[in-house]
Amino acid sequence: MRLLAIGDLHLSSPVNREALHGISDHGDDWLIIAGDVAESLEHQDLAFKELGQRFAKLIWVPGNHDLWSVPREGSITRRGVARYRAMVDLARSHGAVTPEDPFVEWPLPGPTGERLIIAPLFLLYDYSFRPADVDRGDIRRWAREGGALCGDEIWLRPDPFPSREAWCWARCRDAEKRLEALAPDCRTVLVNHWPMRADLIHIPRIPRFTPWCGTVLTEDWHRRFRALAVVTGHLHTRRTDIVDGCRFEEVSLGYPRQWRKEDGIEAYFRTIL
Fold first, then answer.
1. Does residue 110 carry a pLDDT above 90?
2. CA dist., res. 136 & res. 126, Å (int)
3. Which of 95, 145, 245, 272 is deepest in the core (most CB within 10 A)?
4. CA distances (Å), 53 to each of 6, 102, 177, 228, in order?
5. All domains of the chain, ordered by start, with CATH?
6. In this structure, are residues 177 and 221 in contact, taking their beta carbons and an 8 Å threshold?
7. d(CA 252, CA 193)
8. First to last CA, the chain
9. How open is the CA angle 121-124-128, to the nearest 5 degrees?
10. How, if at all, do strands 115-120 and 239-243 pair?
11. CA distance 17 to 40
């Protein structure tokens, strides 16, 4: 029995959708889906259906592409919290654990016999991953000068919150309270789409994309909440980092040019437990 993880399936790509069907039956294994499944609910439904048939349990968190409110002919365009709630309902309809559900305990003991709690989180970003000399109002100009753009500025709406920052801060406050309530003898696996530390962001082709990558509020959460591992996506730069003895796993699949189709998606599953 294993806990595996993958993020950024980006099923708007026909290549990625086709590869989804090639995943084998994983029996008792659990799978973390670390956000950015697809922009459309139809493709998200496909992911939950196909992966739900192959894994004993799914644990899902949303990514920024999942939250995009792109107008589609003949359908209601939900924005912000309403969009997120629709995705939560969809995930739950397939039995997936969401950030709105109780945290789940891994059935097996940790490395030293401790209880392990898997905590799916939805924390967003607040533009604080930016240089100290760049004002909040100058972020888009500064990013464009470095060749970075983010579709979130058009498609990711925070309604009814006044800004994406306000939504981020509310999500962080809620998650913090829930994590603080865990028993002190538990270890955790923290799951979020966006990176939880700025120093682990390595995107050399678009280094000025960092403002859309997380919040400084979570920099010490791996210590505060006794994390054995932190699982994230978003960057499309698969890697493992160790900070304070905690594994930080970036588990993105990415767009077709960023992975080898002949290897299949299964080759990119990361073993967490």
1. no
2. 10
3. 272
4. 16, 22, 34, 28
5. 3-271 (3.60.21.10)
6. no
7. 10
8. 9
9. 125
10. unpaired
11. 13
Place of tokens 């998200």: 44
Grouping H, G, I as helix, E, B as strand and the rest as coil, residue 24 is coil
How many residues in the chain? 273
Which one-letter amino acid corresponds to residue 238?
R
Across 126-269, the runs of DSSP E, i.e. the strands, are: 186-191, 227-232, 239-243, 246-250
For 66, phi then psi, to 5°, come to -60, -30
Helices 80-93 and 41-52: crossing angle in degrees, nearest 10, is: 30
pLDDT of residue 76: 64
Place 117 in a pLDDT band, splitting at 50, 70 and 90: very high
Q: Are 54 and 81 in contact (CB under 8 A)?
A: no
pLDDT at residue 138 in the model:
95
Cis preceding linkage at 102, omega within 30? no
Q: Dump pLDDT digits (tens) for 48-107.
A: 999 999 999 999 999 999 999 988 755 667 899 999 999 999 999 999 999 999 999 999
Per the confidence metrics, is the pTM higher than 0.90?
A: yes
Four-point Cα dihedral 215, 219, 221, 226, nearest 10: 150
- Are the C-beta atoms of 103 and 117 separated by less than 8 Å? yes
What are the structure tokens assigned to 65, written together? 């592409």
Of 230, 247, 220, which is closest to residue 190 (Cα–Cα)? 230
Q: pLDDT tens digit string along 195-209?
A: 999 999 999 999 999
Element at 168 (helix H, strand E): helix 164-180
Q: Quick one: pLDDT at residue 75? A: 61
